[in-house]
Write a structure and sequence with these properties.
- The structure holds 2 protein chains of 2 kinds.
- Chain A contains 15 helices and 9 strands.
- By secondary structure, chain A is α/β, with parallel strands linked by helices.
- A 9-stranded mixed β-sheet of chain A has the order 7-6-5-4-3-2-1-8-9.
- In chain A, β2, α2 and β3 form a beta-alpha-beta unit.
- In chain A, α1 runs parallel beside α2.
- The longest helix of chain A is centred in the middle third of the chain and has 17 residues.
- Chain A is globular, with a radius of gyration of 20 Å.
- Chain A starts with 12 loop residues before the first strand and ends in a 14-residue tail after the last helix.
- Helix content of chain B is 38%, strand content 17%.
- In chain B, a hairpin with a 4-residue loop joins β1 and β2.
- The radius of gyration of chain B is 13 Å and the shape is globular.
- The chains are: A alpha/beta, B alpha+beta.
- At the A-B interface, α1 of A face β1 of B.
Chain lengths: 361, 96
């Protein structure tokens, strides 16, 4: 059960990874290196049950993601079952594979919001990063359809060394696409991105310029577009409160039905994840070993337990602590107070112009 | 804040924009207003007001309805509804 004697909080959001299949090959994909094959995917009826259980547990918003969710032929049925459960539905898509007909059917069934990714503001660079010729044009076409159907649109741009110099152009593109919100998301180094870290890592000068650019653009476009951006991990002084704290605010269901506290949680060895095939969601939330492994702050080293920020960032990200120190209970070494912080500083200056390891099944 | 509050016109027909929805969730203890990446708890009074913002009823009609339903002074209801709607419009959670 919850540590520190605190009542167990209720999750607000559920990330539904409907499939790991995706036409794009982005080298920073948040999916695990070992992808779930199509044959292991949950069927639509099981997703419908998961959504009903999620709503009963307190979940308000479901993010239909992947992979590319449109790789599922039954996407409309799945979306409708989330709406029927009373959830707010957000489609997170690459834009490739979402035909106007499919989007129309989703809109008719009550889709609430669409988030489309762009890889860069320049077509050639964007298609190169996505590993897919023509991706940029198809994303723009989809965004135009979304806006024409009056569905609110968010544009998500993952930034790294190859495109971080063009934040101004990327925000201008998001405005041009009709987005009400744009996320400037610096790469986070797990899974595929960890594999490609030296090829993706921006320089300190680039990061400083990017932070300044966002400030200027926020002032310039105030009231027209919301710009969400945070300082990238390896260049920050304090760690991020990953997913709002382990097992506090959100959960993630993989294509095969495993329930994770965050999308990268499987990178930590020794955690026991439960599946929606075997347990109701509420039982998984309250009692599964993986969810209880790092709840609260009792498990943290003294440095964190006595820190004023312990309820702000919960010692940072468990996956990052493990990836960089080998100990998932350690202070996230992004924190400048961590005894391992030098590791992060050393890695942040490693830039190698290598060919990307594209994400492939 | 000393900014002048712009009153809601009496013939405005407030409605939730596409992508903003009022939902009841038992586990979260009641009504919530949901928007892209945002969640707002709505107290029972706010929920009763938002439920009437269908794009059909005018501001005046909504106030009349609430005043008679709750047997409360019309002026006070008008002030409360106006303040709530103005706040929602400013956050782009309501259209006029």
């Amino acid at each position: 059960m919850a540590t520190n004697g605190a009542a167990l909080s209720r999750p607000l959001g559920l990330l539904a990874e409907l499939t790991h299949r995706c036409p794009l090959g982005c080298p920073y994909c948040s999916n695990p290196i070992a992808l779930d094959p199509r044959g292991d995917e949950l069927d639509a009826a099981t997703w419908a049950r998961v959504f009903r259980e999620a709503a009963a547990l307190g979940v308000l918003q479901v993010h239909l993601s992947g992979g590319e969710p449109a790789s599922r032929r039954d996407l409309v049925d799945i979306m409708r079952s989330a709406r029927d459960a009373g959830l707010y539905t957000n489609l997170i898509t690459s834009g490739v594979g979402v035909t106007p007909k499919l989007l129309g059917a989703l809109a008719d069934a009550g889709l609430d919001h669409v988030q489309v990714s762009i890889q860069d503001s320049e077509q050639k660079s964007a298609d190169h990063i996505a590993g897919y010729e023509g991706a940029y044009a198809r994303k723009r076409a989809l965004a135009a359809e979304v806006v024409a159907m009056k569905i609110p649109l968010t544009v998500n741009v993952v930034v790294h060394r190859a495109n971080i110099a063009r934040i101004e152009e990327q925000v201008a593109l998001a405005l041009d696409m009709g987005a009400a919100r744009v996320e400037i998301a610096h790469v986070q180094y797990y899974g595929w991105a960890l594999k490609n870290r030296a090829a993706l890592m921006p320089t300190r000068e680039q990061v400083d310029a990017a932070v300044k650019a966002v400030e200027v653009l926020r002032a310039r476009h105030h009231g027209r577009i919301v710009i969400d951006a945070v300082v990238p991990d390896y260049h920050a002084r304090f760690p991020k409160p990953c997913v709002g704290g382990w097992g506090r605010r959100s959960l993630n269901v993989t294509p095969a039905g495993k329930v994770l506290p965050c999308h990268a949680a499987e990178s930590i060895p020794g955690l026991e994840f439960w599946s929606v095939r075997d347990h109701p969601l509420e039982e998984i939330w309250t009692s599964s070993p993986a969810f209880n492994a790092f709840r609260g702050t009792d498990f943290l080293p003294e440095l964190c337990r006595t820190c004023d920020r312990r309820e702000v960032d919960f010692g940072g990200c468990r996956c990052q602590a493990f990836a960089l120190t080998g100990d998932a209970r350690a202070t996230d070494p992004v924190c400048h107070l961590s005894p391992h912080h030098r590791l992060v500083e050393e890695l942040a200056v490693v830039q190698e112009d290598r060919v990307y390891s594209y994400r492939r099944m | 804040m000393t900014e002048a509050v712009i009153a809601i016109p009496s013939d405005a027909r407030p409605r939730l924009p596409r992508g903003v929805r009022l939902v009841h969730n038992e586990a979260q203890g009641g009504w919530v207003l949901l928007a892209p990446e945002r969640v707002f708890k709505a107290d029972p009074i706010a929920a009763e007001i938002v439920k009437r913002c269908t794009g059909e009823a005018t501001f005046d009609a909504i106030v009349d309805d609430l005043a008679s339903t709750y047997k409360a002074p019309r002026e006070r209801i008008a002030a409360d509804v106006g303040a709530l709607l103005r706040g929602l419009v400013d956050k782009k959670l309501m259209e006029l």
